[in-house]
Amino acid sequence: MVSKGIRLAVLLLCWTTFIQAQSIDSDAFMQSTIENLQATNNFALDKIRFPWVEEIQFRTETRDMDFEQQEYTLRLSPSSIKVRRAQQALLNHYQNPPNVDAVKSNEQTIRAIYVDWLNLYFIDQERKLLDSLSLIWGDKKLINTKLMQSYEIDVQDLVRLEVDKNNLSLSQFELGLERGQLADIYDLRDKTLDHSKMISLEEIESTVEELHLMNNSIAVIDDELEYQYEKEGIQKEMQMEQAESRKFFDFGQLRYRGPHADLLEERISVGLGFSFPRSGNRKLKIAELMIEQQQLDAEHASDRAESSLEIAELFSELRHNLELARNYTSLIAKERVELQKLAKVVEQKQGYNPMVLLDIKESLLSRKVKQLEYEQDVYIDYIKLLSMLGKLSESPFVNYLKA
After folding, report:
1. Is 265 helix (H, G, I), strand (E, B) or coil?
2. CB 14, CB 32: distance < 8 Å
3. What is the DSSP track for 69-113?
């Protein structure tokens, strides 16, 4: 809850730096917010110094319960350079885990910002078309009102026109309400949005093909971060176990045997201990870590295969929507040419019915509205693909909606 509150505060703070501009493009809309999102954890601890001596033992014992001849032994078990390095490396690893939750959250936040900008773009485009349709239907209603005074017309046409006009008004209201909500979220009231540099469908297709060629070397970013962190942790634990198993100098000791009746008897002795580790527990621990790494690799391979399948399906869906949009655009372009030819023929005839020309204009505008739906599907899938591949949260920031 705290991280979400901080993120919201950052978003609001970032927006105040550029909302004063009268014209806002996609760079200004996204960049300042996205660049302030953080996805790393750094846990600060008091500096830890790993000791050169791992264990200090002090022993004392009597000889024949004679406390005046007490013996004392000081034993030191040293560490080694390799063990200390392995310990420090493992500590550094623990202090810098990837914040997978933040990565996912940031990716979702950035994706939402992209989608909101697209929604604003398509709302503005559709509202323009609906405004033009509203004018045409207003002209139709005016013509029908005049025709009613001169001769009988089909009442069903009047009813149908009125229903369509009311549905259009409802659509305009809904779009205006949706845009108003987005404008309130991003403080865009009375601001002009600049969509002049929006990426085209052809550029999207080119980018998608480039990404598809890289498909064998890409993966879902948060899965990769978690896998690499866990794998590195296992490897560092194994390195520490191996370093400890190769420590041959076991201990050094100093013994004082106390006072003796014979002054020539040696009272102080120095001892050294060497070990040749054959610990079954340590071998078991290393074997356990190796099995854990194999299990991790197997799970990662399975997750990667599943992710690859999802990515492949999204590639297929995106290509399908691109083909639909391209085919529909080609279709209405041909239709526009034919309808414009027909309109010229109608205009050359005396006493032509103006409703025919209005029908042609209405048909062309309705086709454009439908074309926007196909295009929007492509743009949304495009952002979804980039998000799944972790491209949206890469640093430095890249505006994938800019031509």
Report:
1. coil
2. yes
3. EEEEEEEEEE--HHHHHHHHHHHHHHHS-B-HHHHHHHHHHHHHH
Residue 361 belongs to a domain: no
The reply to whether 58 falls in a domain is no
| Low-confidence residues of the chain: pLDDT under 70 | 1-22, 32-46, 63-69, 149-155, 215-222, 248, 258-266, 276-280, 350-351
Q: Encode pLDDT of 172-206 as tens digits.
A: 999 999 999 998 888 888 888 898 899 999 999 99
Domain assignment of residue 114, given as a range: 1-41+99-196
- Do 253 and 285 form a contact (C-beta atoms < 8 A)? no
Q: Does residue 396 have a cis peptide bond before it, meaning omega lies within 30 degrees of 0?
A: yes
**pTM reported for the whole predicted model:** 0.71
| Cβ neighbours, 10 Å, residue 382 | 25
Distance CA 26, CA 121 (A): 10
In the three-class reduction of DSSP (H, G, I as helix; E, B as strand; rest coil), residue 135 is classed as: helix
Question: What dihedral do alpha carbons 6, 8, 12, 14 form, nearest 10°?
Answer: 70
Structural contact between residues 244 and 54, judged by C-beta atoms closer than 8 angstroms:
no
Q: How many domains does the chain have?
A: 1
Classify residue 4: in a domain, yes or no: yes
Residue that is written with structure tokens 């013994």 in the block: 255
